[in-house]
Description:
The chain has two helices and five strands; from the N terminus they run H-E-E-E-H-E-E. With 136 residues, the chain is an alpha+beta fold. A hairpin with a 2-residue loop joins strand 1 and strand 2 (49-57). The longest helix has 19 residues, at 16-34. It starts with 15 loop residues before the first helix and ends in a 5-residue tail after the last strand.
Amino acid sequence: MRLTNRFVPSTEWSDARQRRGLWGERVAMAYLTSCGWHIEAHRFRLRHYDLDVIARRGGLVAFVEVKTRGSSGWGAPAESVGWRKRRRVARVAEVWRERFGRPDDSYRFDVIEVRVTASARYEVAHLEDAWRLDGR
């Protein structure tokens, strides 16, 4: 008999990093909404890969990778989006574009950094057009 994964609500997640990541994604979506973006999808999945946030403003669609950090001990949050992660994000983005994209849409890849400060506040930095598929 094959076991299937059971749904585990986020309130029952035991890994604090996962809970902080979900919180950061919610902060990023609130930020994007306040800047006039419409959230098209959150955690769009393709097999075991996902896109954190897909946002639209008119004919521009942004595939957003959200990085949440409590300290800068390991560098800037956006630095953790290396070439492998970019390639995976691009592959999932291509599937979303084929399924849900519109003929006149333009696309870009963004990174949103959410930094938790010592006073339990947070800062949001939106890096627009953070990378391109041609390597720039």
